[in-house]
Amino acid sequence: MTDTQPHYEDQYLKLMRHIWRHGDERIDRTGVGTRSVLGASMRFSLADDAVPLLTTKRVYWKVAAREMLWFLTGDTNIRELVKQGVHIWTDWPLDAYRRATGEDLDRDTFEMRIVGDDDFAARWGDLGPVYGAQWVNWPIYEPAGEGLYRKAEKGRNQIAELVEAIRTTPGSRRLLFTGWNVAEVPQMALPPCHMTYQFQVANGKLNGLLFQRSCDLGLGFAFNIFGLSMITRMLAQQCDLEPGEVVWQGGDVHLYLNHAELVEAQMSRVPAGAPKLRINRRPSSIFDYRIEDFEVVDYAPQAHISAPVAV
Ligand SMILES: Nc1nc(=O)c2c([nH]1)NC[C@@H]1CN(c3ccc(C(=O)N[C@@H](CCC(=O)O)C(=O)O)cc3)CN21
Ligand SMILES: O=c1ccn([C@H]2C[C@H](O)[C@@H](COP(=O)(O)O)O2)c(=O)[nH]1
């Protein structure tokens, strides 16, 4: 491939350049500061197993894949992630722990306690009713007599219902799930960023769209676009459809001011290659995938660039 042919990642670099040059600079919730725009869109083909992994830096796609599988279990405690060596959610419970106790525990010790101590994990490892809880167990309430209501033992499983809906009503315009449970947002460690996923069947292919209300373009995006592609591929496989394309739509899309090195480095690099995501087994349901089922081939990215995460 020559440099003059468009590469799927050009869209990303173009948006990065635009935000870095023209984004509105402000102090955000984290105090780090961002340059930001409202509204952006990108689309990527999933045909022939294509997957929109960034190539201008190495993306640890297995971390993102483990996170996606964790969401699908309905779990909201970081313990299972930490056990698998996934550290991307640790900073939020750790921050809550430090603020509550005044103890300046380091991250490794905190993670060791989360894994080794049941009570500690239960008390400090939970993120509140975030993604997984809403995706597979959205709370519902049932009448308990005398005008009273109680929380039903089992909530709505949006993912199971979605699989069924894609299979039975593929022409539907209601093929979606969302993590944005207005009533429960205040209890979440972080309100969902990748908040609404919508799907469409066209020509025997499944297309997936994500609305992400808030996007850390330097760090979170690489994971979010992989996650969108992965869930679209899994749903397609479960519904006997071919993968079509994914559409990503961002609300507040921003670059953190302390990501200057990453931004400059990525903008100076040229995207190359066409990685593919293989799913090597057809599990009996959307909830039975394992990390070993996924494989990325033909991925030869440029070197990883680390950048601090704003908490
Ligand atoms: N500021 C911010 N950005 C995010 O992307 C983000 C949040 N907060 N809060 C919640 C989750 C956590 N996510 C994260 C957190 C950290 C990394 C991160 O540090 N990624 C590094 C290394 C990953 C690793 O070593 O495993 C990377 O280079 O991708 C990525 C996503 C995505 N979300
Ligand atoms: O999957 C994710 C999760 C989080 N982010 C980013 C987007 C923002 O930078 C922060 C969240 O802060 P808010 O103040 O709640 O918007 O995390 C992401 O990009 N992807």
Notes on the protein architecture:
The chain has a domain at 10-76 and 157-297: Thymidylate synthase/dCMP hydroxymethylase domain (Thymidylate Synthase, Chain A, 2-Layer Sandwich). Helix content is 34%, strand content 23%. The chain has helices spanning 10-22, 61-73, 79-83, 91-101, 107-116, 118-124, 131-137, 158-168, 220-238, 260-268, and strands spanning 24-26, 34-45, 141-145, 148-151, 176-178, 194-202, 205-216, 242-256, 276-279, 294-297. Strand 1 (24-26) and strand 2 (34-45) form a beta hairpin. The longest helix has 19 residues, at 220-238. The two termini are 39 Å apart. The active site is at residue 193. Pathway: Pyrimidine metabolism; dTTP biosynthesis. It is found in: Cytoplasm.
The CATH architecture of the domain at 10-76 and 157-297 can be named as: 2-Layer Sandwich
Quote the average pLDDT: 97
The description of the largest β-sheet is: 6 strands, mixed
Which secondary-structure class do the elements indicate? alpha+beta
The total of helices stands at 10
Count of strand segments: 10
Walk across the major sheet and give the strand order.
Answer: 1-2-8-7-6-5
Unreliable spans are none
Helix content estimate = 25-40%
Series of H and E elements = HEEHHHHHHEEHEEEHEHEE
Query: What fold name stands as the CATH topology of the domain at 10-76 and 157-297?
Result: Thymidylate Synthase, Chain A
**CATH class assignment of the domain at 10-76 and 157-297:** Alpha Beta
What distance lies between the first and last C-alpha atoms, to the nearest angstrom?
Answer: 39 Å
The name of the CATH superfamily of the domain at 10-76 and 157-297 reads Thymidylate synthase/dCMP hydroxymethylase domain
List each distinct ligand once. Answer: 5,10-methenyl-6,7,8-trihydrofolic acid, the ligand O=c1ccn([C@H]2C[C@H](O)[C@@H](COP(=O)(O)O)O2)c(=O)[nH]1
Strand content: 15-25%
What general outline do the C-alpha atoms trace?
Answer: globular
Our Rg estimate from Cα atoms comes to 20 Å
